[in-house]
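Notes from the 1:1 (GR / supervisor)

We went over the backlog. Supervisor wanted to see one worked example end to end before approving the batch request, so GR pasted a single chain during the call. The sequence is below; no edits were made to it. Supervisor asked that the structure be written out right there so they could see what the output format looks like.
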Amino acid sequence: MSNIYGEWLKAQREGAGLTQQELANRAIMTRSHISHIEAGRRIPSREDARRLDRALNTGDVLSTFLPGGDEIAIADYFEPVRQLQQQATMIREFSFSLVPGLLQTERYARAILGSAFPPVSGEERDRRVVARVGRSELLQDPVTPILWVLLDEAALRRPAGGAEVIAEQIEHIATLTEAGRIRTHVMPLGSDVYPLMHSSLTLMSFEDQPPCAYTEGHIFGKLHDSPSVVERLQNAYDLTLGDALPQEDSLALMRAIAKDHETS
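Structure output shown during the call:
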């Protein structure tokens, strides 16, 4: 991923004779956030870009040429979000129709990626499966990141890949939940409409940089850095979580659904 923006920011900062901390003080930001922007790991919000312009006397260059504005459109790759997940101390996932990628088993991922349109070659599907399943390596650390998962029951009822595949997938989630590695809540089918039904959502929190969010629909995804947008999405997640089943009830429901699939 090109980092022309971050490299230009660094050149302007160094040209002004400022350290990252000095620029952070002037722009009312953290030094680590400046560091992540310069390295291409984060995109500043539009307000942050305006403060950087004022701090560096660069007119409106940084805010005008902000890549994608406050929201970066991501159509064919997940790399920026994958990098952020590796830095996150806490991840909160919501999915309405599918199991989130971080939790997908190989057979489930193969079934999901095999439904792509236009179709892809077997070699390309294999490559995508390896990349997706590889993301679960994040969970090999027993503590970090903290992972909360909020699933609509519809994602568990849909027999993606067949009854055996979805039953195995549900068992994988239940095992991680019972082991205490993740926290899982299910929104039952009998629930009324709720704020998160329109797209999947990933919320990411960090030790030394502002939180961000990622939403994804049918074709496009958006990475949200704007504080006001992230806060709105966090509130929608909290509201939905409040109406979901408690974890023990969610586990019981997952086991029952897996059994239904196994006997179907």
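Supervisor's comment: The radius of gyration is 20 Å.
Batch request approved.
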